[in-house]
Structure formats: C-alpha cells, structure tokens
Design goal:
β7 and β8 form a beta hairpin. The N and C termini lie far apart (39 Å). 21% of the residues lie in helices and 33% in strands. By secondary structure, it is α+β, with helices and mostly antiparallel strands. The structure holds zinc ion. Zinc ion binds next to α3.
C-alpha cells in the first residue's frame, strides 16, 4: 500500500491511524496493536511479538508510548508520517516532503506555504508557460 500520510499528535500522545490503513490491515475499534520501536520509527502491528500493547479507540486513535515519543523528540502537535509497510503501520517523525511528488530532495520552501521540489517546480513553470503561449 503506497500511502504516506501526515498526522498530528494530540495532547494525550495519540495519533489517528488513517482509515485507509485501518481498513487495509483490517484493524477495528478495540483491536490490540503491538508496538515496537526500532531505527527511529514506531512499528504497529497486529501479530508481532509484543513489546508494548495498545488498543485502537473508536476514533481510530492509538496512544503512542511516552518512552518512544521522548526518544523521537515528539510532543503534542508534532507531525508524524504514517505509512503502511507489509503488515505494519510505521510512524516516524515528519520530514518535509514535496507537496506534489513526496520527494525529500531539492525542496524549495520560499515560494509557497508548502514545500515543492525543484523538479515539480520546473514542471509547473513549464506548463504555465505552455498555457500562456496557447
Ligand atoms: Zn516534487
């Protein structure tokens, strides 16, 4: 599943797991997730060897372990990236990405509120010049 969604951590250290990922992995309210912390990422899965267990609430939220939040330097309103890899949900601190293609390289943040990479910027400039000509 090729999804990479940004979410904010709330005041209780919870993050809403995207509905697309919950449906894809068949995670329902009350499901227990095993949380492991490795390589600067949190891995949430239904059937891994548990290190920490958390239940998914009725709004699809899960409380992230405070130890992991500290280790990742995350707090309330921190933005995390959430993606689905194999049968796991992977949560990691957000890094800026291009708002069009998701690339992390060659970002330009001076033109718009959201970062855009040089390649997408060039494409946008090209197509606006084409539309001016025609
Ligand atoms: Zn781009």
């Amino acid at each position: 599943m090729n999804l990479n969604i940004m979410r904010k951590i709330d005041e209780l250290g919870r993050v809403v797991l995207p509905i697309q990922i919950r449906e894809f992995l068949n995670i329902e309210t009350g499901a227990t997730l095993c949380i492991t912390f490795e390589n600067g990422e949190l891995h949430l899965s239904k059937d891994r060897k548990p290190t920490m267990l958390r239940k998914v609430d009725e709004l699809g939220r899960v409380v992230l372990p405070v130890e992991a939040l500290r280790a990742l330097n995350l707090r309330e309103k921190s933005i995390v990236n959430i993606r689905c890899v194999d049968n796991e949900i992977v949560v990691r601190p957000s890094v800026p990405t291009c708002c069009i293609c998701g690339s992390e390289e060659g970002l330009n943040t001076s033109l718009f509120e959201r970062p855009i990479c040089e390649k997408c910027l060039a494409k946008a400039r090209q197509s606006s010049e084409v539309s001016k000509v025609s």
